[in-house]
Amino acid sequence: MKSKSDFPKLKNPSVLSPMAGVTDVAFRTLAKKYGTGMTYTEFVSSSAVVRGNKDTLRMLDVDPSEKPVAVQLYGNNVEEVVEAAKAVEKKFDVIDVNCGCPVWKVIKTGAGSAMLNNPELIGKFVNKLASSVSRPVTVKIRLGINDKKINAVEVAKVVEDSGGAAIAIHGRTQKQGYSGKANWDVIKEVKEKINIPVIGNGDVFTPEDFKEKLEFSGVDAIMIARGALGNPYIFKQITDYLKNGSYKKENRIQQFFEYLELANKYKIPFYSIKLKSVAFTKGFVGGGILRTNLNKCNSTEEIVKCMNEFTDTSS
Ligand SMILES: Cc1cc2nc3c(=O)[nH]c(=O)nc-3n(C[C@H](O)[C@H](O)[C@H](O)COP(=O)(O)O)c2cc1C
């Protein structure tokens, strides 16, 4: 049986949250450069791993700088998830099971957040995985199915008792999707009631949000998803803010060019680079026209031209 000491010690308490279509190896490497304490792959179908699906296997590329790095698996069949975990464990420091995804395609199969209906089943997954692989096993959950069925504390105890090395909690229910505010009271309660590391998650968009939620909840680390979308530099800002109480403004276009270099190195598909170009240009003056132009691009050369033209006219 694994124990809490198996979870890697993080250099920084800010963690890049798994994001489908976003946290490819190039993006994760950039987040690592800017100081994230840990990276996660996007969620990966265990059955696709077992079948050896080519696109899925590409999602498992890892950069040597990514230490520690977790693979996030999902599935409804414990034997298959174990088989997938065994197939990939050498490349990763942590095996994470997604028990939080609210997307219909996933929950209709009984995977993702549907597993919150059955804490015993989550326990079975963790137990079987922890005794089958040589890496620490963690779980990412939501608060519960809906506001009448909030069971994060119960699930966290099951994870701990079944040999889980840590738990991450997004402070919303399955029903909520992304509406309302993340409930950090429940995250705090989980931290108070269990002994394995707890990673809180939800609504951290600035270094100030990060500090406030860290101090409020006492969690061991905080995962950031939307706040890092198009801005992996947020991890540097957080580190600086925790250390000095101040941080520098980001240069998103420069970050995009850094991403592009890594994306070329890792042969990230064009559609994914194009999506990123749009994300990296959210939130600045004149960005709307730039994004319209980016959406029309058919090659990375065209994207680079758009970005350069924008920089020339805005500076
Ligand atoms: C585009 C996108 C893709 C996501 N994909 C995943 C995923 O693959 N696995 C997962 O556990 N959570 C996924 N999430 C949820 C985030 O990891 C995180 O739990 C959620 O966005 C709340 O954090 P935030 O408030 O920092 O955005 C995704 C979120 C976004 C916005």
Task: List strands and helices in order, with pairings.
Blueprint: E1 14-16, H1 25-33, E2 39-45, H2 46-51, H3 54-58, E3 69-74, H4 78-88, E4 94-99, H5 104-107, H6 119-132, E5 137-142, H7 152-161, E6 166-170, H8 184-193, E7 198-201, H9 207-217, E8 221-224, H10 234-244, H11 252-265, H12 270-280, H13 287-295, H14 300-314
Helix pairs in contact: 1-11, 4-6, 6-7, 7-8, 9-10, 11-12, 12-13
Bound molecules: flavin mononucleotide (FMN).
In short:
The chain has helices at 25-33, 46-51, 54-58, 78-88, 104-107, 119-132, 152-161, 184-193, 207-217, 234-244, 252-265, 270-280, 287-295, 300-314, and strands spanning 14-16, 39-45, 69-74, 94-99, 137-142, 166-170, 198-201, 221-224. By secondary structure, it is an alpha/beta fold. The protein folds into two domains: 4-244, TIM Barrel; 252-314, no CATH class.
